[in-house]
Task: inverse folding
DNA sequence: GAACTTGCTGAATTG
DNA sequence: CAGCAAGTTC
């Protein structure tokens, strides 16, 4: 088969080893997607496997979409009648459940509703309220993520409750919310995202007949980004491969960046134990990036200890140096990026560019700068189309039309547009629904048929009105389903016949007009859906709306794409800007306390760098608005981990980079002196800073300082060049009793008063740092200090042993 | 019941 | 600086 000749030997092996378990360790840019797609086509064309016996699973729609397109392109000409199933974990599960969920016998029907995170939070909020908990103490979001984390660990409400330690009020409250939440989901015939996987696993575990059927169906299974699978996804794959063992997984441990979502890296590390006859193939040749870019990526990620180690190499030329820019503030950084894009465009108008940031909130300044420069851009993430309020409203109408017991959907739209059903009435409905233990829809029926008094005549009329709107929509939906009429007609009905469009038009504002346009866009989506063959009706359309996510708006040919590093995984661009490389931002401050999380941040930096094919820019700003407040920021330690000699400094004036370079030669000198045994006397002036050591405290301080002097990294002067992030060390000072008392000695306490934000301090262990924030006063004063190379630390002023610098 | 005002708290990454 | 929740006014 001639297309194999375009592959290198390990790639070819990965394609033709079709039988039995196979692990493909594929480094960044090593042609992973290519191998998967070729493998699928090879199975069909050379091994005569029926396409419908092949399943390929990905995490994102984007990846699935790309794979589908590439398979189609490669196999155009073979004229297959069926296509392989290339799907995300979630849509695979929806597919299975829509078919077989009744076999679980938990009361769920095939017309179950899918709750996305927003719906799920709403339901949790209601549960918190109904259990009488203070929603300030029990943040809805926090509870939602605790429950989701538990579910992904494989815990249900019962086992979560069983693990709560005695006296842990918060957890036991969460446990009760969890239980109620599950109960409500069931009453609403609804599944949240996690349930989609959980229920499928339960189904396969408990019902041998179903398990067997899917085992027979999916004879060859491929899993992409295997390092990101969690225990549930692992279980799912295990069950699906029980009978046959033709499982091929592809992944890269250096690109594991979803631990926070429960991804379990041991799935890939122990694959060979899970599937004893497994073969492993490593793809180590990178085709994407220049040598310099690859060197930068490698030199950052090698600072991680939790890794097997892999040598990625390339035959590509060294290429351009990495360009570095230190900006005055966030705006200046954005202007710099826009200017550079223009500059590149003048030489090469078609150079695709990506701007990668750590958090979505950073996108705004870049959008503004690009708009000012009249550069077209495409944004991935943030609020997606299907997350817009008006779109969600209409989707809720449609969900309700298919499942009137979906109380979340009902409560969402019962009074939008406003139809005279205010808080009073809604509270009444909620109360009764709870009392009677029936759905809100049934409660409404009880309230309007006259059998249940309690509502004002006005409210009853309004409620009847609403009831009619929904029953009409239900009729329209069912008749459309039976007559096979287009989905777009029903969508139009949901927009027009509910009075939604009219209410918007009556507003007569620009904003309302934009909303109308968005709804028009939804109708267009439905028309598109109708046009493609294989559409399965409204239900399928709505499932799509629920499972589609922001990263799916990625347009491959957009000239400039803005997105988070997470959403950039799997993509490549000739020109890449990694922005906001600052301590506390990237690496993110929430990762500061846990070394494992810092390693994940570092892998994320690795992912970001390896997106670049030819040009890579890295930048940071010296100050930035956070919470609407200007905050000083220090360069990211990851910058320090890049090979400084490969970097070209484009900053105006003296930058951190020029500093870092000087001090690294300085450091080398120190190192040489230390080797010659002169280290101890290297900087005597630092020991005798004009103080007389005349008290016990002062003498203790002398020994403390001398102790640091022995430790070269602690003795580093300004912009220290740190070899390795010392994330494991805890903020010191408190561990050193002597320092505590020394601080109360007259000499240093005079300086204690003015550690104000913006001033510099010197810490016995971390060296020079910048005070970012000061909270509290007196003995309890806490400082947030950023130490270049060590990250941000929270210190108790009294114990930290700080000096003014 | 709806529209408006104030005041508070809180953002990491995703299907 | 948001976005949201509770309070206030019409």
Result:
């Amino acid at each position: 088969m001639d297309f194999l000749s375009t592959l290198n030997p390990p790639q070819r092996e990965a394609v033709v080893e079709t039988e039995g378990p196979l692990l493909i360790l594929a480094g960044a840019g090593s042609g992973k997607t290519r191998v998967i797609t070729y493998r699928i086509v090879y199975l069909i064309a050379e091994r005569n496997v029926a396409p419908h016996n092949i399943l390929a699973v990905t995490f994102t729609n984007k990846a699935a979409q790309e794979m589908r397109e590439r398979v189609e392109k490669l196999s155009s000409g073979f004229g297959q009648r069926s296509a392989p199933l290339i799907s995300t974990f979630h849509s695979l599960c929806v597919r299975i459940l829509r078919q077989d969920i009744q076999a679980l016998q938990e009361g769920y029907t095939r017309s179950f509703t899918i709750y996305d995170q927003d719906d799920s939070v709403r339901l949790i909020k209601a549960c918190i309220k109904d259990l009488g908990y203070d929603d300030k103490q029990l943040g809805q979001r926090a509870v939602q993520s605790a429950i989701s984390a538990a579910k992904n660990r494989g815990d249900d409400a019962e086992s979560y409750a069983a693990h709560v330690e005695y006296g842990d009020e918060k957890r036991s409250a969460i446990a009760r919310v969890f239980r109620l939440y599950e109960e409500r989901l069931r009453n609403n015939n609804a599944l949240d995202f996690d349930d989609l996987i959980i229920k499928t696993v339960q189904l396969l575990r408990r019902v041998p007949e179903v398990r067997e059927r899917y085992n027979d169906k999916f004879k060859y299974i491929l899993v992409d980004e295997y390092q990101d699978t969690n225990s549930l996804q692992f279980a799912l794959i295990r069950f699906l491969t029980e009978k046959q063992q033709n499982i091929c997984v592809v992944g890269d441990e250096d690109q594991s960046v979803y631990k926070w979502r429960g991804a379990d890296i041991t799935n890939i590390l122990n694959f060979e134990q899970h599937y004893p006859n497994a073969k492993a193939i490593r793809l180590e040749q990178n085709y994407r990036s220049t040598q310099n870019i690859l060197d930068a990526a490698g030199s950052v990620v090698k600072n991680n200890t939790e890794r097997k180690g892999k040598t990625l190499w390339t035959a590509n030329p060294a290429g351009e140096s990495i360009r570095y820019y230190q900006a005055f503030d966030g705006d200046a950084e954005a202007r710099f990026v826009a200017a550079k894009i223009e500059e590149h465009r003048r030489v090469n108008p078609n150079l695709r560019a990506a701007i990668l940031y750590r958090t979505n909130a950073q996108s705004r300044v870049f959008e503004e700068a690009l708009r000012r420069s009249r550069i077209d851009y495409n944004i991935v993430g943030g609020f997606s189309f299907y997350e817009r309020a008006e779109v969600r409203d209409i989707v809720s109408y449609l969900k309700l039309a298919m499942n009137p017991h979906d109380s979340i959907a009902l409560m969402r739209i019962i009074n939008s547009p406003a139809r005279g059903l205010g808080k009073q009435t809604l509270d009444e409905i909620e109360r009764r629904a709870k009392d009677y233990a029936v759905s809100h829809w049934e409660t409404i029926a009880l309230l309007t048929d006259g059998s249940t008094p309690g509502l004002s005549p006005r409210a009853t009329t309004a409620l009847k009105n609403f009831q009619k709107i929904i029953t009409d929509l239900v009729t329209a939906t069912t008749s459309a389903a039976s007559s096979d009429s287009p989905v777009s007609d029903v969508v139009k009905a949901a927009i027009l016949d509910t009075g939604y469009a009219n209410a918007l038009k009556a507003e007569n504002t620009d904003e309302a007009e934009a909303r109308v346009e968005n709804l028009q866009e939804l109708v267009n989506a439905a028309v598109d859906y109708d046009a493609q063959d294989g559409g399965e009706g409204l239900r399928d359309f709505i499932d799509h709306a629920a499972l589609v996510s922001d990263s799916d708006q990625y347009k491959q040919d957009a000239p400039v794409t803005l997105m988070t590093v997470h959403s950039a995984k799997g993509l490549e661009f000739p020109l890449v800007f990694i922005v906001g490389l600052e301590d506390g931002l990237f690496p993110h401050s929430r990762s500061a306390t846990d070394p494992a999380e810092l390693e994940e941040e570092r892998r994320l930096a690795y992912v970001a760098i390896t997106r670049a094919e030819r040009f890579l820019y890295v930048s940071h700003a010296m100050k930035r608005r956070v919470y609407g407040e200007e905050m000083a920021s220090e360069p990211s330690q990851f910058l320090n981990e890049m090979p400084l000699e490969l970097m070209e400094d484009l900053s105006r004036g003296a930058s951190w980079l020029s500093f870092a370079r000087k001090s690294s030669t300085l450091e080398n000198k120190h190192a040489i002196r230390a080797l010659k045994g002169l280290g101890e006397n290297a900087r005597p002036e630092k020991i005798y800073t004009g103080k007389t050591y005349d008290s016990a405290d002062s003498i203790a301080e002398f020994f403390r300082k001398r102790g640091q002097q022995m430790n070269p990294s602690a003795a580093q002067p300004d912009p220290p060049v740190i070899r390795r992030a010392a994330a494991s060390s805890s903020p010191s000072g408190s561990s050193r009793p002597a320092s505590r008392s020394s601080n109360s000695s007259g000499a240093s306490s005079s300086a204690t008063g003015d550690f104000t934000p913006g001033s510099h301090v010197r810490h016995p262990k971390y060296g020079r740092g910048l005070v970012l924030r000061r909270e509290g006063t007196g003995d309890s004063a806490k400082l947030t200090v950023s130490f270049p190379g060590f990250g941000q630390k929270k210190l108790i002023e009294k114990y930290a042993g700080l000096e003014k610098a």
Q: What stands out?
A: The two ends of chain A are 70 Å apart (CA to CA). Chain A is about 50% helix and 15% strand. Residues 135, 361, 625-629 of chain A lie near DNA strand C (CB under 10 Å from a C1'). The first helix of chain A runs from residue 9 to 16.
